[in-house]
Amino acid sequence: MSLDLLRPWAVLLLPLPWLAWRFLSVHGTRSAVPLPESVWLHLQSLQAEAWPNIPRTNSGYWLRVLGWCALVVALAGPGRTGPDLLLGSGGEIVLAVDVSASMGEPLAIGDARRLDLVRSMLEQLLSDRAGDRVGLVAFAEQAYLIAPLTYDRDAIGQILAELEIGLAGRRTDLGQAIGLSLRTLQGSDGTRRSIVVITDGESNSGALTARDAASLAAAEGITLHLIGVSEETDAELSKKMQALAEMTGGTYLPVRNSEDLSEVAGGLYPGEPQKDRDVAAVRRRDLTWVALCIALGALVWREARRA
Amino acid sequence: MSLVHPLALLALFVLLGLHLLFLLGPLRHSTGLPGAWRGIVDPALRPHLAALSGPSARARTALPIAIAALLVVAVARPVIDRGHDTDFAALTGRVLILDLSADAGIDSERIAVERLIALSPDIPTALVAVTRRAYQVVPLTTDGTQIRRYLAVLSPDIVPDPGQELFRGLIEADRILVGAGIAVGQSILISGAAAPTDGIASKSAGPARLVLPLATPQGWADFAQAHGAQLLSPDDMPGSVDRLRRSARTLLRAEAPDQVFELAPFLIACAAALWLLFFRRGAEA
Prior knowledge:
- Chain A is α/β, with parallel strands linked by helices.
- Chain A has helices spanning 16-23, 29-32, 37-50, 59-76, 114-127, 153-162, 174-185, 210-220, 235-247, 258-268, 288-306, and strands at 2-5, 78-81, 85-86, 91-98, 133-139, 143-150, 192-199, 223-229, 252-255, 280-281, 284-286.
- In chain A, the strands form three sheets. Chain A has a six-stranded mixed β-sheet with strand order 6-5-4-7-8-9, sandwiched between helices.
């Protein structure tokens, strides 16, 4: 939270009272009672004699100045900018994470489990997707929608951390995972809809083939990105995955070690990382009322004094 | 056009009172002359001088009145809604906390949740189940189908650690709303059971808290008070939705400069122009 002024140029108006004093016509109070100047001065001296104990202060002048300064500050629009209001970016992503038994194995000797590496990669990806609605599907033999589309990336991160191997069976049904992700995105009003499937192997189960599911996604205008997590280079599998992704205009990113995995988050949506600041409306608490109340107080005080 | 702080206009009445007190007070009327003049002008001459100075005095009081009125209306902040249809990701959010204790009456709780979702399908809603612990069941979402799917399977029979530590649900709801950066949040604790008689009081400094007892309201008022919550009756569910929407609208008008066109600067500029007249030579004589 920081204080700022919407119209700082208004401060340039501060010297205006001097111009008013210099150029505006003389106030008409003296002529309200039409008396010769000599009589006027005499009456003033009588007044001074009648109330010798009244302190002769310049409070009237200072109240006018205080009020003027407060008005200039009010005109400048003081305020405090706070945490921004996050805006929807129109992006919608369903993360489909393979939780089959093989994801519990390390990617390479000494590495963490594949699922743990995937978690940290997805956390990185989520931090770049401010304003996107994100859903989460866990799949193996079965696919489950663990989290519906939400802007709450913290919640997705928390649910990701709680995913466990064996939650959805031991084998891998890629077709069902893409199908469920597709169904989650169907009917949503996102302008950029995509599915990110993270798996460590070929589809070896299920009735709906991955190819059919991908063609359904392509027909819906949904982009399919595939991330293959395996230390072995299987040219045939890579080719199949590549073909699936290309059907929908997506990308296939093979990951063979933890270093590759850390680069995936940046490579998945090249050119469109979204930080909180990029998709946020400024939230600002207006403090003009404080200055206005000071001006109002000065005015009331001045009038009370005159009365 | 609308006012962000309409209650500020009440200050006009205060100013009117002060005006009557200061400028048109009984002393002034009795003497017919302002301030010290009544002491030095012969009583026989006072009505004559008062008649001469009357119109000028009225003109002199009109200026502060005009400035004060402009300032008060500026404090009320008149704005014109720009009518932007902005998709705010974290403007409003609501967490529905379900009491899953053994005698909670899950069926009536389900109906209440269904009703709240039906009343406001556009408000992101999260589900939290609370027993001896609090679990986030569904994150903030507008996907009513998914909420209903989880709602259908939630029951006291499936919870691993039974209990009724409802304050944990309220704390979890605050955590969810704050973590998601929700600007106007609301958490509603729904329970078909009797109010718990013990537990840790947990006041909220952030999101509004509501307690919706479905069985007997007895004891819930004390519970609500201990947790800084308001008691909600089943009939007032639409009211709770209205309040959330109204708070969101007020926040947008007050704190989202892109959403409104401010009229206050023009009023302040007029007031400042009039204030300059106070600086004319002889203005204080």
